[in-house]
Every structure is written in C-alpha cells, then in structure tokens.
Amino acid sequence: MARAGSMKILILGGTADARHICAQLHQNMPALELIYSVAGLVRQPQVPATVISGGFAQHGGLSHYCQAQNIRAIVDATHPYATTMAATALASSQQLGIRHWRFLRSPWQSQAGDQWHTFSSTAGLLKAMQGYTRILLTVGQVKPTQLDLLNQVPHVWLRTAVPPSVDLPSNVQWIKAIGPFDLANEQALLQQHQIQAIASKNSGGEATSAKLTAARDQGIPVYMLQRPHIKQQNSAATFTSIEHLISQVSSWQQTLTTAPAVSTAI
Description:
This protein is of the alpha/beta class. The protein contains 8 helices and 12 strands. It folds into 2 domains: about 10-105 and about 230-260, Rossmann fold (3-Layer(aba) Sandwich); about 115-225, Rossmann fold, CATH 3.40.50. It is about 30% helix and about 20% strand. The radius of gyration is 21 Å and the shape is elongated.
C-alpha cells in the first residue's frame, strides 16, 4: 500500500489527450506530483511532470515501480488500442489498492457518405482488402503473420510513426508520419498514390480524423478495425471527458488533504 501522505500521480501517456490531462492537473492541482510515462519511441513530450520512458520492465514492472515511488493513483490515458498497458494498469491498481482512472476518447461515428466496413481483427480486415491494387494502411505495426496477406495486394502504403518492426515485402512502401494530419495533406496523399481503400483503427479524436473526411470526399471505402474490449474496474472510473476526469481527481485530492491525520503518539 502507498503511504497516506503521498500525493504522486502516475500518468500513462503517449497521446495528445494524456498531455492535456497532465497540463490541466498541473494547472488546477499544483500540489500533486505528476509522473508522466511514455514509450519514447516517437518523441519526448513537453509536459509539466517528471517524464520516464522505455516502459516499466526496467523498473521491475508497473506494480513494483508504483510501490517504490509511492504512487497514490494512476491515470491511464494511453491509446484506445493499448490493451496490454490498460490491463496492466488496472491489475496493478487493484493489487496495490490505489486509485485508477482511465480516459477513453469517444470512437468515431460514421456519417452520411461514408463507406465503412468494420472488422474485429486485422487479419480479417486485410483479407477483405485483397481485391484492391492500391491501399493505405494506418493500423499501426504489421505483424510477421500478416505479411502473406499484404503480398496479395500489388501496392501497399504503410503509414506509422515509428519504423516497421518487420522487413516489409517489396510491394509495401513505408510512410513515416506523426499526427496531427490536416485535410489538405490527406487529400493530396490519397490522390498522389491513387488510393482505392484505407485501413484504419477507430482511434477517435481529431488528430487523425482528416483521412476519414478525405475518404468520404473522394468516395474511398474505409476498412475499420473495431476497438478491443478492455476490462474496466467500474464504469465510474472510465471517462470520455477530460473535464470530468479532472473533476474526479480534484475530489480525490480534496478527500486526502481534508482527511484527519492519524496520531501515532503513545
């Protein structure tokens, strides 16, 4: 268990939402000591917090790190598809008896003119795209088991923020790009490569939504990977509004600061 007097919060970041949450916590509750964790594969964030990168294996795991650093609460603001980290954060908070909040931005909703095809797995999505000759993949890293499926499409453009973790076949070209993306550039990209279909995660938010608008405008179908199911401690600990999450953290902080001190006198 963490010591009662500690006011440290660990923010699991790597998203624009996490940076906004960190900034608002610092602004509204300066007494909190914020620690911001990021994988560090893309860039180091500029946030008003102590930044740690590279994951928790180097610290003996998340639970061990939280104990060693006297963390009182975890704010999980990782990507909606970061299932492993989300599950680890929940398990660690339950094990240690500390507070846990998760920010989960709302998914995109299809609009009039969209041609969305929804899939529960990347493999199923890629199989369905084999009838095209020119596709854009924006679903993150490609696994070795998926390369055979990619070989069935003559021209593939894979867009990720970090280099691919596998050797890509000759028909796949890598595009390094970090959001946010604007509409004009997305439209130009689709036209330049004569893209016939797009594969996308339903990430939600505004940073990467321009590709959906561009696809709608150009009549390009989108093959959408559904969000994974992530077990939650309870629905009250999951937020789609940053403001509501900040309010909950504020209430928690006030409870700690107004709680009567426990006397240790004999």
